[in-house]
Amino acid sequence: MFSDKMEEHNRTVLSEFILMGITDRPELQAPLFGLFLIIYVTSVVGNLGMVILTKVDSRLQTPMYFFLRHLALTDLGYSTAVGPKMLVNFVVDQNKISYYLCATQMAFFIMFIINELFILATMSYDRYVAICNPLLYIVIMSQRVCKVLVAIPYVYSTFVSLLITIKLFNSFFCGYNVINHFYCDNFPLLSLLCSNTHEIELMIMIFSAFNLTFTLAIVLVSYLLILAAILRMKSAEGRRKAFSTCGSHLTVVTVFYGTLTFMYVKPKSSHSFDTDKVASIFYTLVIPMLNPLIYSLRNKDVNSALQKMWRKLCSVFS
Question: Measured in Å, how far apart are the chain's first and last C-alpha atoms?
Answer without folding.
Answer: 74
